[in-house]
Give the backbone structure.
Amino acid sequence: MKDKQIEKLIKEEEKRQKSVVNLIASENIVSDDVLKALGSKLTNKYAEGYPGKRYYGGNQVVDKVELLCIARALKLFKLKPEDWHVNVQLLSGSPANFALYSALVPVGGKIMGMKLTSGGHLTHGHPLSMTGKLWKPLQFELDKNTEVIDYEALKTLAITEKPDIIVCGFTAYPRIVDFKKFREIADSCGALLHVDMSHFAGLVAGGAYPSPFPYADTVMTTTHKSLRGPRQAILFVKKDAREFDKKLDKMVIPGLFGGPHENNIAAVAVALAEAMKPEFKKYAKQVVKNAKVLAKELQKLGWHIISGGTDSHLILMDTWMDGKGVPGKIASDKLEKAGIIVNMNTIPGDPRGVMDPSGIRLGTCAETTRGKKEADMVKLAVRMDKVLRN
Ligand code: DSN
């Protein structure tokens, strides 16, 4: 590179990434092919609009890129093009959720989603997010004793409050979600069911987590977490008389965004093809096996694992334990000093608060990409326990 300053920083970051154990649940390590597509000359092209309907000239090639990405997204999740419409232009999860609500929920309508402190996301209607300002938030929490979703309580809330849309999806909920029950709850109050599968999309693709598609009206995923692609998002909407496809595409452009990043879209296409390979199935299953072992070992060492374990790549660990342990921020700092990267996180009903929470969130996607197996998780748990108790 001619820019030596940036070259040096990129090298520094590469070195940092190599030298640490990465347990950030939303991160992964992409292939060289994904990086090549991201850094390709496709970045030079403006392509406002959709394949075959662009505002600028010269889109013969990027049209093929975008169509290939869409076809691969459908194939990976076993969807028929006559049943599902796909938009691959969204840059990340938050703008994708925002675009979906903007297209399908009237401003002032109600969004029902899991509270941030229970494992939901800001864009599931948190009062500080625009999704909780432009729409009325209806936030639910987990059952205090079991630390899992109480579907009966959700149904009562839905029937009483009649949300326009129910968001099912999480950034810090470790368990399998019962999509069928969510569908029944949505039907009981006439709401749309939107699944945000950003965290577990790769597990769905690899057959290690149930698919939400038989139940959802709309599905969003980011592509950079368990799916192991570049930073981008995909929106899937059911194709039927409700015309979600037309409403969504019109909201994305001209409603909210301009030119899509075709280099990102190409990189997503590469990741989707990688996720179709038999190795990816093995990978997804190993991600879950590793998380289960790590959770169990930490539990054996005396730590409170929220909900008693995990069914996915994600573990929520209460490090504070009512004052018997350390707050999440201190736990995260101590681990970082020891070369283990995690993020502090609230736990359900957190007594401490969002900026100084009681726990940490762990994930096994990145370390599984590096080839780590169950025995490594046992050692890792012992190492983490030593650091946290020091
Ligand atoms: N920041 C992502 C996560 O870590 O889960 C969600 O936006």
Observations:
- Residues 104 and 244 are 7 Å apart (CA to CA).
